[in-house]
Specification:
Layout lengths: L1 E8 L2 E8 L6 E7 L2 E3 L5 E7 L15 E4 L2 E2 L1 E6 L2 E6 L8 E9 L9 E12 L7 E4 L4 E3 L5 E4 L1 E3 L5 E6 L2 E2 L7 E4 L8 E9 L2 E4 L3 E5 L18 E2 L5 E2 L12 H4 L7 E4 L3 E4 L5 E3 L9 H10 L13 H6 L27 E7 L11 E6 L5 E5 L4 H4 L6 E2 L8 E3 L4 E4 L4 E4 L9 H9 L14 H5 L28 E3 L5 E3 L1 E8 L9 E6 L17 E5 L20 E3 L21
Parallel strand pairs: 3-11, 4-11, 13-21
Antiparallel strand pairs: 1-2, 3-5, 5-9, 6-7, 6-10, 8-9, 10-11, 12-15, 14-18, 16-17, 16-19, 19-20, 19-21, 22-23, 24-25, 25-26, 26-30, 27-28, 28-29, 31-32, 32-33, 33-39, 34-35, 36-37, 37-38
């Protein structure tokens, strides 16, 4: 079948006849140079197209893409049979022969892509014997007491590379990876840190990173964003309307609509700015799968949109952009593109929160992530890689979001001056199904207040402290995933282990797109267990379960009697420092 390609360049119309039988048969006849070593940068590569097997595209038609293996070239040029591109190869690039492909895409409705290929047309060779070079230095930072923090370096050179972290030029025992993590920062952790990287050919020492105590007043700096859920449901997942105060099932997320309405700005198509939090996000994340450390390194070395201070987001930051209005995905894809380009349960994104406990899959090396299709927060194996074990990452920039500022009021309540919320210091002490949890909150009179309610899922997640877990390896960190100012009712879980319960939210959930909302979200301040009571998704996980006994099975061990922690609003005004964003504003009290 014959196709006609009309290519408009200035005032000249080029016409090319392409025979359908030849569309995928074009070849590249030569590549110069045809090899390079790992770590080669800014290499100009020339490709000669075969003019004998098919007609060429117009002589000045733009090249859509040139690839060597999975590496894409830039600064592409095309003139008749000669195509060029600039290529760089990572220091850990897989060595061996690589296929070459040169792709032209005609104007719309004028045929399919024209691809010239050469199997094994280029070879990546091992890096020559090279001493280490540090490409990403550890960054100095101020850290809140009891908050987690980490330092990391990126280096290249001949393998194997050996790492040794030092404090005040003294080796830190057992800290021999590319990152160094402090699970709970203390005054004794202040000081000067560096990393020494070595191999058989030499040694490189990083710049000094200074850790100091962050004494910033965070009052009003943690404005919570609404969940986006505007519909109320019954225990069977049916939509219910016209609920009034005093009615059964009143008190749901959609009855109160707490939090600032989601407000995103698309900055020139590459960056999305959250007008409420001031955070700037990568709109289109990398489609690569990463281990947790690889994701950290990717973000810290990222130069994008004119900025070089990108980082991996915390769980609280990543959860702030979740949209519970419809689910599947739990994300506004107008402003946040899915990494895979598909609505799949594998849309899991790493956070900077490393788990202090021990999970079934990750052991003592697990980290939290947010699944923006299913909505969950779970701990995953931090060292798993590849399409199955690796996760995506969406880089962020900006400061001072997600840090609590608690004040113990002396009356059984705690005020978070960062969010403007007041919390009951203790939970209710007994498990309730979801409908009765709503009723308990609506009918509560405590510490002289009568406007208590059941928190929505973003509100309850905002008081999670990822520095604690019942399965923590550090005895000082054994406990529920919440600041020790609070108390949680202890339980014996399904495995017979000491644990803490799940706590209901007022936000409903469905299992997949289009199904009824017969679940409700909960926060696991104790371990998020599997059916055998083992720590599967980590203390601090956010999952959902059935609203009542006899409802459809949820995830992990089915628990339809969960706990309640009351919340109410105070008069604290929340706002943000808008210096990190482009046109963000300071929101009024929500």
């Amino acid at each position: 079948m014959k196709q006609t390609w009309f290519y408009n360049s200035g005032e000249i119309i080029f016409i090319m006849l392409l025979w359908g039988i030849a569309l995928n048969a074009q070849t590249v006849t030569s590549v110069t140079p045809n090899s390079a070593s790992q770590g080669t940068t800014d290499l100009l590569v020339t490709f000669i197209l075969d003019a004998e097997t098919a007609e060429l595209p117009p002589s000045d038609a733009p090249v859509d893409q040139i690839t060597i293996g999975t590496e894409e070239g830039n600064s592409l040029t095309h003139n008749n049979t000669v195509v060029t591109g600039i290529f760089s190869f990572a220091f850990d690039e897989i060595v061996g022969a690589k296929d070459v492909a040169v792709t032209f895409v005609p104007p719309p409705d004028q045929g399919g892509p024209l691809v010239f290929t050469l199997t094994n047309g280029f070879t990546v060779t091992e890096m020559p014997d090279t001493a280490p070079t540090i490409s990403t230095q550890p960054a100095s930072k101020s850290v809140r007491i009891e908050q987690p923090t980490s330092l990391s370096v990126a280096a290249y050179g001949s393998a194997p590379l050996l790492y040794q972290w030092q404090k005040e030029e003294v080796n830190i025992a057992n800290e021999t990876g590319s990152s160094y993590t402090i699970s709970s920062f203390a005054e004794s952790d202040t000081g000067n840190y560096r990393c020494v990287v070595s191999n058989d050919f030499g040694t490189a020492t990083s710049e000094i990173a200074v850790l100091t105590i962050d004494t910033t007043n965070y009052e009003g700096t943690y404005p919570l964003v609404a969940t986006g859920q505007t519909t109320t449901y019954d225990a069977d997942g049916n939509v219910v309307t016209g609920l009034s105060e005093g009615d059964a099932l009143y008190g749901q997320d959609a009855n109160y609509l707490k939090g600032a309405e989601m407000d995103f700005q698309d900055d020139a198509g590459d960056i999305t700015t959250d007008q409420n939090t001031g955070l700037m996000w990568q709109k289109v994340p990398s489609s690569n799968d990463y281990t947790w450390q690889e994701a950290v390194d990717y973000c810290e070395s990222l130069e994008f949109g004119g900025y070089d201070d990108w980082r991996m987001p915390s769980c609280k930051e990543l959860f702030s952009i979740s949209d519970f209005g419809s689910g599947w995905p739990y994300l506004d894809t107008t402003y946040f593109i899915l990494a895979s380009g598909q609505v799949t349960k594998d849309e899991q994104y790493w956070s900077s929160d490393y788990y202090v406990g021990v999970t079934v899959e990750g052991g003592s090396n697990a980290a939290f992530g947010v699944n923006h299709v299913t909505g969950h927060i779970k701990a995953y194996s931090a060292e798993a890689s590849g399409p199955v074990g690796g996760k995506y990452v969406r880089a962020v920039r900006g400061d001072n979001y997600g840090i609590n500022e608690y004040v113990e009021n002396g009356d059984g309540t705690i005020t978070d001056n960062a969010t403007g919320l007041m919390w009951m210091q203790d939970d209710n002490g007994e498990g309730l199904d979801w409908e009765n949890a709503l009723a308990y909150a609506e009918g509560s009179e405590y510490a002289g207040y009568t406007d208590w309610r059941l928190p929505n899922v973003k509100e309850l997640q905002c008081i999670v402290d990822y520095g604690y877990s019942p399965s923590a390896t550090n005895p000082d960190k054994v406990g529920p995933a919440i600041d020790p100012l609070f108390t949680c009712t202890p339980i014996i879980n399904e495995a017979g282990n000491d644990d803490y319960g799940y706590h209901w939210t007022s936000t409903s959930a469905n299992f997949t797109s289009g199904e009824p909302y017969y679940y409700s979200w909960y926060v696991a301040f104790g371990m998020a267990v599997n059916g055998e009571g083992e720590d599967f998704h980590g203390a601090g996980g956010v999952r959902f379960d059935t609203k009542c006994e006899g409802g459809p099975l949820g995830e992990g061990g089915e628990r339809y009697y969960n706990y309640v922690r009351l919340v109410r609003n105070t008069e604290v005004t929340t706002g943000i420092d808008d210096s990190q964003s482009n046109g963000s504003y300071l929101p009024d009290q929500f």
